[in-house]
Structure formats: structure tokens, C-alpha cells
Amino acid sequence: MQNLENIKIVTTTETLENFLLPVGEKVKIIANRQNKKPKSAGEEVCTITGRIIACDKRHFTIRMENTNLRESFLKIDVILGQVKVKTAS
Prior knowledge:
Structural class: mainly beta
Number of domains: 1
Strand content: 35-45%
Radius of gyration: 12 Å
Oligomer: single chain
Shape: globular
Distance between the termini: 19 Å
Number of strands: 6
Largest sheet: 6 strands, mixed
Strand order of the largest sheet: 5-1-4-3-2-6
Helix content: under 10%
């Protein structure tokens, strides 16, 4: 079942300058839960796949297509070094 909600991710200017993402680009975002390190691989990790529908130097908004997002992940602060962004295959 696809989840087509929008999620706005707050990030640092430095983080977004490292990857200026065009609107319409399909991306996969993997983020650790804030202030927690995973105890094992795959634990406390949020994965979001979707298309970027808005982007500026501080935020980008994604229309989610597939996610394992749980309530504790509804607000994600993207901290430099804790988030990987890559084109989804």
C-alpha cells in the first residue's frame, strides 16, 4: 500500500548545499532516529522513498511513495552526517 503524504524535512544549509536536489527527482532517504543510534542494523531507522515536490536551502518536501515511517519519525531533523540521500533505484 502506497503512502502519498507529504513530509517536510528540516535540514542544515550545509547539508542541502552538498546535494541540491531538483524538484521531481526520485530519492531514497535513510535516517537514524534523532538522538539515538541503532543497536543493530535496520533498527530505529526511517526509510522514505518519494519524489521531491519543493526544495530550498533549509527544507525539502517529499511526496512519499514507500516508507516504513512510524509515528516517532513524523518530524525528522536531518543532521549532517546522519542522513544519506541517493537516487532511488
